[in-house]
Design a protein that fits this description.
The chain is an alpha+beta fold and 197 residues long. The chain has helices spanning 13-26, 69-76, 102-111, 114-122, 132-145; strands at 33-39, 45-51, 55-56, 59-65, 79-86, 89-99, 157-171, 179-186, 189-195. The protein has five helices and nine strands, in the order αββββαββαααβββ.
Amino acid sequence: MTALRRADLDLDPVRQTVRWRDEAAGDGADTTIAALATASANGRPSARMVLVRGLEDGGFRFFTNYESRKAAELAQNPLAALLFHWPGRQLRVEGGVERLSAAESDAYFDARPPRSRMSAAASPQSRPVASRADLEAAVRELEARHANGNVPRPAGWGGYRLLPDAYEFWQHDPHRLHDRFRYTRADGEWRVERLGP
């Protein structure tokens, strides 16, 4: 991989994201996987892997149970960061998070495979459960009630959109002289600066 220069980058970080995402997908990477970091109101951080289901309206979409730990932290502190790791590259985005509309959440939920919908509806995400057998029994009970597989989206499950106010594009260098560029918004324009590795 050749050194990354400022002239190689698009002025728009969304277009640059799409370029890198498409290149990584072309190399066989699953470009939907990212680490999501949130923090509680008192600043205690937590991170977990999520599937990012689209980059629309300038924001990264992900879905979860609204009673999960991440949702509770986003309710207290609606700021988050995503980290994508692709071969030889990382993309970090940071910004505010908003809930998607019920219609957007319904559309995504309805597009999921039936077993994934069952699991989402049956799981008390982030809360203690007695056993896996209890979870499997909850799924079987839903399957019996919804034999056609059309489980409606639970009211407590839906999507979020992270709207970045900062991006960082990082590219590996074998001698650790990595290339890093940060985009930040100033007066409605994106400013790009190189960072030390």
